[in-house]
What we know:
This protein is α+β, with helices and mostly antiparallel strands. The protein folds into three domains: 10-209 and 516-536, Immunoglobulin-like; 242-418, Rossmann fold (3-Layer(aba) Sandwich), CATH 3.40.50.410; 579-696, no CATH class. Helix 4 packs parallel to helix 5 and helix 8 (480-495) runs antiparallel to helix 9 (500-510).
Amino acid sequence: MSSNAFSSPLQQWQLTLNTHGPLALSRISQHFKHTGDDPIELVYQFPLPADAVLQDIAVIINDERLTGTVLPKHNAVESYEEGLENGKRSLLIEEIEEGFYQLSIGNVVQGDDISLEMTVASLLQYQDGRWHYRLPTVLGIKYGNAPVFALPQGNSLFADYGFQYRLELQDAFNLQANAPLSQIDDTKSIWQGEAKLDKPLSLSWRSELKPHQWLTCVGTSDIPASAIGLVYPPANLCQTSGSARLQLLVDCSGSMCGLPMAQAKLGLQNALEKLNKSDLINLVRFGSDTEALSHQAHPYTGEFANTLRQAINALEANLGGTELHKALVLAQELALNSGGGDILLCTDGELWDSDNRLRQLTCELKSQGIRLFTIGIGNSASEPLLRRLAQATGGNSLMLNPHINMAEQLTQLIEQLRSPRLQLNLPQLTWQSLPSAVFSGCTTAFYQSAEELPPQLSGTISNPQGELIPMQWQQQQLEGEYADALRKLVAQQQLRTASPQEAEVLALKHQLLSSHTSFVLVQEQVVTDDLATTVVIPHMLAEGSVCMSAPEVYCESAAIMSSPHCEAAPGERLDTLDIPAFLRSDSITAESKQALPLPSWVDMMFSNINALAPDTGWFLKELCMQTLIELGFPEHLARCLSQLESQQYPVPHLYIAVLVDLEARSSIKVPCLQELTQFAACIKRNNCSLLKVYQDIGLRE
């Protein structure tokens, strides 16, 4: 159970992970409890692994286990809204975009205890001799325009959710994780642990299981046989083909502040060490605007190499929003100016592609022979988006794991950039989806469906020189829930190439959530006659993210990276452009203000602040984390702010930002906040970014 700093219906997640070969079944339980007096409609958005499929869904309401159904989206929404209007408990799960879902539970009354149980099927990835699993648990604020039905979701400094997990891994040893683990039985591959919902669960382990796999399952009366294969190219086809031509595209938007930017800079410095003098490279940083180091790629040698290293060391998350489309268009132009080449994108991927402009651009890149390789940075990076962009152009993606040697991870990606472009060739079946490219050092999946599958599969891998290496796979037939998982994973891939009408029929046949279908459940009994208040459940801040406005940013790199958008002279302070995640006004609705009662410590702290109001100036000058605790500030929040303080954030800034968040998320007026704000405005070296934040989120004139 979690000890939340505010009253949130979400209590915790629980996970039981089972693996069979390269298939993973994640049994996730999300537990909610409503302790308030009035009925609510809770809304919670959550991520799932890239290419994963929701296999089974059940709901337990006050110890009663219920099952719903997948319907066409408009029918599911109508059924949910009718149940909501009639005072019945109603539940709706919608796919907002690939790997991103919205749960709505309406007419939740006082004392309701609700658990959403999901079985999620996904594929493990084999890389560098280890099997890898990643379960995202936290979302960041996404830049751009969300789909109209997706309610604004935010992150709160006060959110604190528990995460319990049990891992039952087939033939696994030498397990590494980014969260606490204890082995239950030394003779079995079973582990357990507890953490928080502030970062993905990342696991890697060794196993005797070979990466070259072909999993199959027999057909049913109305579903043909299905198969998923993993291809792992032999090393003799993967020798480097020469020099790389690379446009290095780095996200410097505000959401990259903190751990993501630190990871990006460290990773890029490691990557530079793997470049040869014959490699051609250029650097483009982007946010609301784009800034290129040069108009084309240059050999990584001499003065340019020094300039590039200095530019990477000077990178800051100070360019506002995440205008990725504009940045990719510039990188595309620079690549063509350099005679072709590839783009290596480093980003947290926290943006919407609701207008499909990025999808259209990747088609252009592929036709021009420009591959896009992506590196996901930070704990809330959007793996589905980054993987989709890379795969569409024949590139590859990497979710950077700071708990595994980053130099090794990036070395492999650089080698893939240099290696010849490899193609998988298989005989045609009734339906199959082959990868646009395969790479050394990691597995790539292909999907097939036919009335009958052969006992073994033969194919080839080819390189640009026309060399063909024969490949063979032996059929491994699955049964039970793993066979069902395989069918649904294949069907999900079929949805991507089907027409809207065909996709809806296929999703309904397999009971899949998709852009055309949703899951709905409505109980029969009426539980309330009152109108439910909508409560959007905020996520925790991602571990290592920075929830405040950026610290002072000096244009010290103006001599290195010039831009018509960079108007400040060296040494002059630049205002931050990105609104801090947990202070963004679009994550705070009138409904959520009424539904988030403040904890008891707030009243005590405000009383203590009021007593100090006549001496507010002195109080802020002397403010420290110990003072906050003595005032009644929760110790776990003080520790969080202390970590931010170590990153050079002024304590008064942090403290006032917390008070702003409290006032914005509640219906009460924070005592003497105006006086505190006015005092902060008098602190010359701090006032600009703080006041700009207040103005941007509409809390101050």
